[in-house]
Every structure is written in structure tokens, then in C-alpha cells.
Amino acid sequence: MRIWTRTATAIALAMSVTTPVFAQDDANTAPATPAPSCSADEFRQMDFWVGDWIAEFPNGDGTTGTGTNRVTNDEYGDCVIFEHFATPGFNGMSVSTYHAPVGQWRQTWVDDQGGYFALVGGPVEGQSHEFELVNTRLSENAPYLRMTWEDITEDSFVWRWQNKASEDAEWADAWVINYRRAE
């Protein structure tokens, strides 16, 4: 039985390697569907964030912490906002894109402390200078977390990482960063 299992596995593996899934008769191949356009207005909603930024935030000891954030939107054909955040002792990156089928922005964040967040959201309704992404909760015990961009101008904004104990509780700041565009 063992020999049969190995043989069947080897045959299946060989077939998957030698028979490409894209092999078709060219005469019967439908034209390729064009890639989705990222030129819709919704894809530009986070462009305020694109650029090189100086980040300043209060430390617990009363000093001011500083960092940098390089945010681009040209690494993946203008469809993805790519973030590189750095401050002494903490570095992270995120990718964000507008997901048209659900009409929301999605962001994935990872960092050198083992942090991972999957967030969704977009412009705050009724607020012309606010943007919000809320963390996806994976269980009922998971914390409520979100980030907001507020007071957005061409050269500055305030970013807030917030939490709350329950769905009905008020959001509380855990980390507030004042951003100004680097020269």
C-alpha cells in the first residue's frame, strides 16, 4: 500500500508539473481580460498620504519621538499605496488598496515586533478631511482597534492609533503622531 501511495503521489506531481494549466489551443483562446483600472476616483482617496513624512509623537517620558514615513503609490501600477515607517527601535510597512467589489479600502500592516493588522475602511462619511481604517477582529475577545488620519492638509495631518474595550465604548488614543511633509 505504501508503494502505491508514493507512486500515485509521484504521478500526480509529475502531471501537475508537465501539464501547464495555461496550455490551450491558440485558436480557441479568448482574448485576455484587461487588468482592472485603478483610475477611478476612489483609488485616489488616499493620495494625500503619498510622500516623504516626518513623524513626531509624545513619548511616555515627556520627550518627543521622531520617525520617518515614505509612502508611495507607483510600485504596483498606481493601484497600491506602499508605506515604509521607521523610528528608532520600531519599523513597519503596509500595503493599502481600494477594493472595488466591497467599496472599501483594505490595508495590511506588518512590523519588526511581530505585529500584523488587517484593516478596512475609507473616508469618514460627512467629514472632508478624515480617513479611517478599522482592524479586523478575529474573535470576540480581540480588541477593537482603528487608525485615523485627521486634519488633513497638503503638508500635514494627525494620525491616531486608537482602541476601545467594547463596541459601545468611546475610542481612546493609544498613539498620536503629527505628520509634516519632509522638505
* Helix amount: under 10%
> What is the molecular shape?
globular
The run of helices and strands is HEEEEEEEEEE
Percentage beta strand: 35-45%
Strand order of the largest sheet: 1-2-3-4-5-6-7-8-9-10
Brief summary of the model shown:
By secondary structure, the protein is mostly beta strands.
Structural write-up:
This protein has one domain (41-181): Beta Barrel (Lipocalin). Helix content is 9%, strand content 44%. It is built from one helix and ten strands, in the order αββββββββββ. The protein has a ten-stranded antiparallel β-barrel. A hairpin with a 4-residue loop joins strand 5 and strand 6 (116-123).
Primary descriptors:
183 residues, mainly beta, Lipocalin, 10-stranded antiparallel barrel, 1 helix, 9% helix, 44% strand
Could you give the topology of this structure?
Elements: H1 2-18, E1 51-58, E2 64-72, E3 81-87, E4 90-99, E5 104-111, E6 116-123, E7 131-135, E8 144-150, E9 156-164, E10 172-181
Antiparallel strand pairs: 1-2, 1-10, 2-3, 3-4, 4-5, 5-6, 6-7, 7-8, 8-9, 9-10
